[in-house]
Amino acid sequence: MKVRNMNIKSLILGSAAALVACGSAQAADLPVAEPVDYVKVCDAYGAGYFFIPGTDTCLKIGGKVLFGVSSEGFGNDAGLDRADDLVNFYTETTFSFTAREETELGTLTAHMEFDDASDTTTAGGTVGNGAAIDKAYIMLGGFYAGLTDSLLDFNAGLGYDDYGFGFGDLNTIGYKADMGNGVTAAIALEEFNNNEAGAGTSMPAVTASLSVAQGWGSLVVGAGVHQVRYTNSATSTDFGFAVGGEGTFNIAEGLTFGLAGGYGTRISNLAAGIAAGSLAKEWLASAGLAYAFADNMTLSLDAGYKSVNDFGTTGDFKGWGTSLMLEYVPVKNLSVTGKVGYQKMDYHASSATADWDDVAAKIEIERTF
Predict the structure, then answer these.
(1) Which of 10, 94, 157, 173 has its CA 20 to 30 A from that of 355?
(2) Burial class of residue 7 (count of CB atoms within 10 Å of its CB; 0-12, 13-18, 19+)
């Protein structure tokens, strides 16, 4: 009996060994699973960044969807007539991508923003659609190059933002130096395409700025020189200039005041018979006061003024506007904004454009991410 039990035990152990050997042989024939490279959070540059798998590059994706309804008139310097649609529905979208990584020469950054807008009704009853690259630039340390804001771009308005002074987004290459204690100095070569018909350029504009940002707010001043190269070779080349600034001041808890403006010269209206060599003069100013009377509600009051003298009287005009805006944030990353404003334009008596004024209103719903 004892011998029989030993035989049974030996049989069981032998069978188990055979199964293990067989399983090992079959497992050796199976493909080996590659380790999974999960997306990891990158906290070196703030919230929203993650590592692109397999790289040291951190990427942040953002954007917005905005829907609005407005009565025409905001920013419309041509005035309105009965042939225009006075109510406009529009939708705007933005996608942004920011890639950053550290190198031996500093932080390497690439930033892109793509904007798209669709208007169901515009002046004259037509449908307006448009997509464009709003920004696309490269930065390495303090050096930058690409499509981005001009160093001359100042505006304190929130509702009526067409009283800003400067050149807006353009192609440029420059350098920003961090001087410490919130002070930054910058210099750049910028494209200049604001000359009117009858003049061009053969060189970039040269701009520079100095800014400071601290607990009390921020302040920036800038200046630039651009070329005016007339098509009439008998006329010498002119150089226009621009100088301006913008300040934001934290007056009290929840209360902010902004002021911006600038003065500059540009090509005059040659088409109106102005003698070549006479540069027009213009200046603009804007101011804004914003009060957050709740964590999710802000009331803003804005005003702006602009004046242009082209020495030919036909293009001379003065204009001003004011607006009131209320922004409500019901939940994080969602805002509902209502605006109402008044604008008036006065043209020189010899101008073919008639004086006009209008009242405009709009409501916008914006979701950001």
Answers:
(1) 157
(2) exposed
Q: Comparing C-alpha atoms, which of 346, 285, 265, 276 is closest to residue 312?
A: 276
| Alpha-helix residue ranges (DSSP H) falling in the chain | 2-29
How do residues 152-163 score in pLDDT, each as one tens digit? Answer: 999 998 777 778
Dump pLDDT digits (tens) for 188-221.
Answer: 999 987 666 567 788 999 999 999 999 999 999 9
- Which residue type sits at 174? G
Whole-angstrom distance, CA of residue 359 vs CA of residue 369: 33
Cα separation of 58 and 251, whole Å? 37
Residue whose structure tokens are 């921020």: 218
Q: What is the largest CA-CA distance in the chain?
A: 129
Tokens standing for 34? 């590659």
pTM assigned to the model: 0.79
Per residue in 94-103, pLDDT tens?
A: 999 999 999 9
Token pair, residue 120, equals 């169901």
Residues 6+ apart with CB under 8 A from 4: none
Q: Which residues contact 76 (CB under 8 A, 6 or more apart)?
A: 123, 358
What structural domains does the chain harbor?
37-141 (no CATH), 142-368 (2.40.160.10)
Q: Residue type at 308?
A: V
DSSP label of 138:
E
| Beta-sheet strands, E only, within the chain | 50-51, 58-71, 87-103, 106-119, 128-140, 143-149, 153-154, 165-166, 169-180, 183-190, 199-200, 205-214, 217-230, 238-252, 255-267, 279-294, 297-309, 317-331, 334-347, 356-368
